[in-house]
Amino acid sequence: MAMNNEITPNRIAKRFRGFLPVVIDVETAGFNANKDALLEIASVIITMDDEGKLHQGEACACHVEPFKGANLDDKSLAFNGIDPYHPFRMALPEADALEKIFESVEHALQDTGCSRAILVGHNPFFDLGFLNAAVKRCKLKSPFHAFSSFDTATLGALAYGQTVLARIVQTAGLDWDDEAAHSAVYDTERTAALFCNIMNRWHTLDTQVK
Known about the structure:
globular
């Protein structure tokens, strides 16, 4: 029996070896995490019900001010349609944006008994690279594993024979809006829905085998 000051790990902590899956997507002003600006970041914490099925939580998203001296690549800005200095963006300094995202993740770690968050992303090397670079610039402590991640591109290839996010989502029978794509919050929510879909399919198959 756990003492009052101890946290009993819930199902999701046991399912992922103490890691808590958190979907992250970033929008940036280029491809170089050390030089190009981080402009948007969004997160969705994954939860698990009593039957062992995964669900996506609410999205937490921030527009981010370019850090001092950041490079802004015109082609990248044209692709994602972001005006970094538009007054209606209500952008936060990079450190404040990260702290807002991390606060919700840290609360979830405490609630679930997980030891660390693990980034879920579509080709997550890119997102994790920008996250780690921003953490280093802001001298913050990240709740995320520094190099491990879950990749929905790989999972999509396994489950549906597709690797492009839009095609996997549509093949899975989930909604996709081309006009809303390439915003951090929309891509995060769709990636979270896809991750839950694939993992729950496996859970159903695994239960049937047992």
